[in-house]
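During the second year of the project, the team shifted from modelling isolated chains to modelling whole assemblies. The rationale, set out in the original proposal, was that interfaces cannot be judged from single-chain predictions alone. As a representative example for this report, we include one of the complexes processed in the last quarter. Its constituent sequences, exactly as entered into the pipeline, are reproduced here:
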Amino acid sequence: MKFIHTADWHIGRKLQQVDLLDDQEFVLNNLIEEIKEQDLDFIIIAGDLYDRSVPSREATTLLQELLIKINIECDLPIFAISGNHDSRERLAVGQAWFSKHNFYLATQLEDVFHKFQYKDADIYLLPYFEPYEAKVYFEDDKLTTHHTATKRVIDEIYKNIDESRINILVAHTFVAGADPTDSEREISIGTVENVGVNVFEKFDYVALGHLHNPNALNEERIKYSGSPLAYSFSESNQQKGVRLIELTKENFDDRFIPIKQKRKMHNIVADYDEIFSKEYREKFDTENDYFSMELGKLEGVTDPMPRIKEFYPNTLLLKSKAKRLDSSKNSVNKEMLKKNPLELIESFYEEQVLDTLTSTQREVLEQIIGEVEQDETN
Amino acid sequence: MKFIHTADWHIGRKLQQVDLLDDQEFVLNNLIEEIKEQDLDFIIIAGDLYDRSVPSREATTLLQELLIKINIECDLPIFAISGNHDSRERLAVGQAWFSKHNFYLATQLEDVFHKFQYKDADIYLLPYFEPYEAKVYFEDDKLTTHHTATKRVIDEIYKNIDESRINILVAHTFVAGADPTDSEREISIGTVENVGVNVFEKFDYVALGHLHNPNALNEERIKYSGSPLAYSFSESNQQKGVRLIELTKENFDDRFIPIKQKRKMHNIVADYDEIFSKEYREKFDTENDYFSMELGKLEGVTDPMPRIKEFYPNTLLLKSKAKRLDSSKNSVNKEMLKKNPLELIESFYEEQVLDTLTSTQREVLEQIIGEVEQDETN
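Output from the structure prediction step:
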């Protein structure tokens, strides 16, 4: 069994108002070239094919072209699911005809209970779903979290699983390690729900979508492929590509294949004057790449953007380095947890707009925060 | 060759803010029952499958269900085109897979130059297109009207037509008789473009969509099917259904098959008091049907709608009979042609709102009309 695992194409995504469709077309066509190089059994696309529930006409056309190339022109079976960014109903258009050509797309929770048999593998397709759907499906009010709901779904699959075959699950969800690291623990303080890794123990491979970092989870048989492109500057240092999986009941081989990008993304942290020197600029493809600039010594520079764009035309973000809260930390900033809502908004505003709040803005914010707090205590 | 010709489903249509999806589901499922009764070769759907370029999720799901029933469950070939209400790109999703299951959908002008051979028939699918598309395609600046553009397209088809076979054209356009009637002549005074009927002389049957009245064109071999439901109160007296065509090179038989509707539409013209009597109400399925009321003797009645809705809950329109311009005429009102734009808007407003324009409204309108007229003379 040899297949490619990809996810999170997010076709139609914009980055700071810039349309990434050209980048997506370039990268995903390179992905198709990779498909042609390999002698694959199938490809898995683990959700978020589109970025929005109502994709633009251009996004619709691009996804169609890519799927036609893969499924019809390369005659390669596709196993795909909808993600939280997809509209189930819109993504499902054509589904009944796709399945007649070995393109299997699951968009409903109950689709996962149909096992697709492909050679010596059984493939289960679990689209993104909310806990309430499992609650309704199983008539069980206790299924209120992603973990309990997913566990219940998987337990149902286990009732009929044939452990002598290669069992593959495709899912779009946030899976956390059984023993979370510090940063994952911090995240789980918030509202983000995750699914414990031990739920999946009977599968030979779990092909995940949702997180854009291919190394988001450190498990041998449970992997994110990550997105094929960087979709925010925080992803600029991540490897972008697909996973090539070779799998028998005895052996498992996982290889990450980087896919050539049209443009790179760079987070520049430097002083304002520094970035215009020839030596500095030569480190980048300045005409082509996307830049986020975090610059020091901006004081006294009244309108920096025009000059920056002259040298780095695709500069999409500009922040002042001096105003940054605490640039030495990557994880959730401890200082932030001590601030009250008004202070949080204030420092965010200062960081983004490079100016302080006016008294009118403060007043409006105080009023809104007051109303929200009032609501919460009621 | 035996087939059903339908068009203008307009799935997702609303009538005065009322969602017609239930009505559409009912009627189109009855159409499918009719399909099962007949031993058909195929079905033609001549455009405007959706009502809007971005159909709702519910509309998307309903159209999918209907097409699956027809093409997959009944295993009936479909020949369809996009209409002016459809988004080509969105309707085309899945097209590459549909065609592998005898569901042929044309959304681009150039698709018409591919001839579909089905038994002894050649079928040409001409989606709705704008004259400029033909202008670009043929590199001919003279193609500025629907008539000249369509004629050029058809002439191109005629270069390779095989007149020994049954030739069927499917199109979504406004075809006018060679000898227009009075009412058609009046329409052509406006900006609506039409295509002359003699353009189509080499076809054995032309299956048209666009006009909702099945009898809009009085030609033996060039027919509108009309919409399967009434979509405005002006259509309430039209027969609604599909055409059943039986066709050989020698014989032609056309039968209009009415399709059972969920609700009827009624244009009521009466005095206010009259409609509440038992005898009057017994003429209708008052709980169920849609009503447009044009009532006399409304003077002095301050808030008529609640009482009307008590007896006729699906009353969607209410006008005062007294305020009507000239209720005795059905065709374009001669009086209207003499009015200037402000007067036209004024009388429309009075008819709809049952009140006169305020001086501020008049001023704004005068300004806008002035600007538009200025633009036109530039």
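The domain at 2-258 of chain B is CATH 3.60.21.10 (Purple Acid Phosphatase; chain A, domain 2). Residues 178-192, 324-331 of chain B have pLDDT under 50 and may be disordered.
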